[in-house]
Amino acid sequence: xxxxxxxxxxxxxxxxxxxxxxxxxxxxxxxxxxxxxxxxxxxxxxxxxxxxxxxxxxxxxxxxxxxxxxxxxxxxxxxxxxxxxxxxxxxxxxxxxxxxxxxxxxxxxxxxxxxxxxxxxxxxxxxxxxxxxxxxxxxxxxxxxxxxxxxxxxxxxxxxxxxxxxxxxxxxxxxxxxxxxxxxxxxxxxxxxxxxxxxxxxxxxxxxxxxxxxxxxxxxxxxxxxxxxxxxxxxxxxxxxxxxxxxxxxxxxxxxxxxxx
Amino acid sequence: xxxxxxxxxxxxxxxxxxxxxxxxxxxxxxxxxxxxxxxxxxxxxxxxxxxxxxxxxxxxxxxxxxxxxxxxxxxxxxxxxxxxxxxxxxxxxxxxxxxxxxxxxxxxxxxxxxxxxxxxxxxxxxxxxxxxxxxxxxxxxxxxxxxxxxxxxxxxxxxxxxxxxxxxxxxxxxxxxxxxxxxxxxxxxxxxxxxxxxxxxxxxxxxxxxxxxxxxxxxxxxxxxxxxxxxxxxxxxxxxxxxxxxxxxxxxxxxxxxxxxxxxxxxxxxxxxxxxxxxxxxxxxxxxxxxxxxxxxxxxxxxxxxxxxxxxxxxxxxxxxxxxxxxxxxxxxxxxxxxxxxxxxxxxxxxxxxxxxxxxxxxxxxxxxxxxxxxxxxxxxxxxxxxxxxxxxxxxxxxxxxxxxxxxxxxxxxxxxxxxxxxxxxxxxxxxxxxxxxxxxxxxxxxxxxxxxxxxxxxxxxxxxxxxxxxxxxxxxxxxxxxxxxxxxxxxxxxxxxxxxxxxxxxxxxxxxxxxxxxxxxxxxxxxxxxxxxxxxxx
Lengths: 261, 539
Ligand code: HEM
Prior knowledge:
heterodimer, A: Cytochrome Bc1 Complex, Chain D, domain 2, Cytochrome Bc1 Complex, Chain D, domain 2, two-stranded antiparallel sheet, 11 helices, 2% strand, elongated, B: mainly alpha, Cytochrome Bc1 Complex, Chain C, two-stranded antiparallel ribbon, 19 helices, binds protoporphyrin IX containing FE
């Protein structure tokens, strides 16, 4: 029935014009989807070696040649685990470029193979969370309702009610989650990038994490009510009421008035 | 003219019915009276109608929603079709809202029509109010109607807020939680009022049914009654008109209400309805299924009130947190009281009293039926723009998290900026607006005295070059010279001729100060003598 409702409104949405305007003004920023990361394969010694070379060339300037970090520049990577590297490099956050309130996601600079090599190298430095398996992140095996309850209590205060994103202090922000791959969602919870807290196995069980992925994936089909306006709450609705509603009505009134006189 | 027998029969029947009604109600007098009323034609006079029509749309769609909404907080387990809610415990109010959205045919569309209409209702009221303000339509004899309108504006906020709180989702619950905090910040009586309102501790079981009664009965009935009074007063006073040739404070130039104006107005209803229906069918509004059933612990990012309450949220956000004192075991939360009660009280109080404030400045007690061009009352226009700037800044602060993510700014910087801006920018806006108005008035004077520049240069026989100026038409001149030329009030001496101190002297001194503020800087309209002199010197 929900899908029925959705279809009913889909037919009413050939107003792609409105959609274009919407994307423009609500600033649904174009987020470039990173290629899906594949589950980890056993890292070989060659991978570690190749990863070390890549690391020395691309990461050592900040994290140090031994990856022990440099005070005030970048943290130590001993014990952060493969999951952290896969997340940070896979979402393009690392290697970090512009300094700002937080490392920004961008198009990833490395291919899957290189990311796996970097991850293998960092994982070899100290035990840490590893990259989740395909089954662990498969939303279709999860329970979206339980995911909704977990998400509401653990994530919505930063990422918004359905993952539209939200602001934190000092220019930091929790990004929108609609484009993030399931593996990266899982890894984000495991490793807690930057201002985000770590949700370890005790906080949210692996099944719980999968339920959250299921809930977030359920948001991707669009809103049953039509265009979602960024799903950031009443502020964008108010903006549209003024821009389209009052704008159109007053525009028509002035136009009719000008024609009749 | 020949009429077929059947047509004349119909006519006779119609006539007889009309007679029947008329003999019992004397309605013909009214009909004739109203249909011969003239209504001046200007687009800005349609803004009140936008409010009226969106209210009618609210009533109709609201009746539909009432048929499906259950105003109860009894817990139930969701059994509907929305996947991510399966089996979740929620109140009946929330469950019925989901049911209405996903299972009742047309229910979601109706909900969206109702909510978009609510946003447009409040927005159009404010735009209408701004029109009335900037054109001085609130002056005598319309002060009472300004107050009626003001009350309608407050009621529209009440209607919106009670409606927003009904579905018992996380957003509405958080809104109520904030209201509870605000009520409790009122010294001494606050906690009692809060207990009374919520029927005990927040959230309690009593509130949703109470809000429902207020939302579907009390507030709409008051609005309906006051709209009737409001429109009656518009008819009684006759509508104002913009200045123009032949328009005076003693006549009305316009279209007869019936049939021309009525036809236009009827068509206009469908414009308003069309725009609202378009928005409701394309744009999601208040997706309660996203927020989830109310539960006091989770607060999601983007939790905000609808736009018309946003400025009060902004006040709360801009206020520093420190002024909170404990006096003899009682907490005095000035950090909530000032932004959420005192400042809105002063703001609304100023608006309500504005017609009288301006009367102190002018001392003018005559009736005004011709509107002001905003430039001709620079201080009023400046005050209006300053109020709007103040309001908009606070709306931005109320959305500071959204602004921060949208423009990649720091939410802390925004708040600090606005802490200063909310005091400085309205003053700057006032000053700039006043200067622009005075400049426009000077330009009007210039035009009246010297005419339009034509760009045509002619050479006199003496060899002198001059540009030809085209004199204005009488209509153009009328618009530019016929405005009230108020001057600051002159204060009578403190004591009368017998050396006795005048009564109300301080009050008069205050009024004189207001008057000076309004009228010290002014541009006088061109007098007939000046016009004559200018014309003869040009020839
Ligand atoms: C439910 C809200 C309201 C409705 C339905 C409404 C409706 C109307 C309508 C249809 C008119 C005549 C057309 C026009 O001048 O626009 C009017 C005139 C007027 N309204 Fe309102 N109004 C509302 C709120 C307000 C508010 C908030 C104010 C100001 C505080 C206000 C003050 C006035 C005044 C003074 C007039 C006479 C204007 C004149 O004669 O030029 N109204 N209203």
